[in-house]
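Collaborator request, handled under Task 6.
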Amino acid sequence: MSPLVRVVALLVMLGGTAAPAWAQSALEIMQTHRARQSARDEEERVLMKLVDRGGGVKQRTLARYLLRGRDDRDKILVRFLAPRDVEGTAVLTWEGRDGQDEQWLYLPALKRTKRIGASDKKNKFMGTEFTSDDLRPEAVALHRYTLAAEETLDGQPCWVIEAVPATERLAEEAAYGKRRLWVRKDSFAIVKREFYDRRGALEKVQLDRGLAPVTGTIWRPAEVEMANRQNGNRTILVIESRRVDAGLPENFFTEAELMRGGS
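Structure tokens returned to the collaborator:
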């Protein structure tokens, strides 16, 4: 073997062994997504449109608040502001370890709160095409991720990552058999999600539109659409206003505050 051939063979061998070390794994991509897209606290005013398969539209207005705790677990409060039939209704979620969240629903007509069971997290949230889990930040520790492909979406290079529950217990509690996530390579923001039912059929598609930086490395959409491919219904969230890292206090995310806000 000539010296040139030996050099070429050595470079090929080194390139082949070094490439996996340079490439990011699916888990590393999702960990970076979580780190770069997390705010200490956040609040949004949202116009919600419920669009049925026939084109009929119902509108609601809500406020959504989020706090990232020192333990890296989220607290989320969603309060409906209009119309009158849902005004004051609110849901408070404390992210727990290993998917064991605590949730409370406040019903103004009854002037009391009730605990939401773990099985309710699979159900539609207040008649929308979202579950309560769909409305929270990605829970990286609760999933196993696989890099499925690399695609360009709306002119932006993306990783396509498949996500499944990390344990059998989580799989039994999950609303979906698997999800596919399109993560932009420039911002590590998720711009598209596909949700598959337990039979492996596509159930829903979520698109985040009008993505833009809001502060630091944090990017947020101007509009989110969740389209149910099985029943033809859609839920559209139009962000009317947003504040990030404004200093929401921890005692805002309590059951007592949940009731006071609806009084």
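The cover message to the collaborator said: "The first helix runs from residue 3 to 22. The CA atoms of residues 129 and 235 lie 6 Å apart. Please let us know whether this matches your experimental observations."
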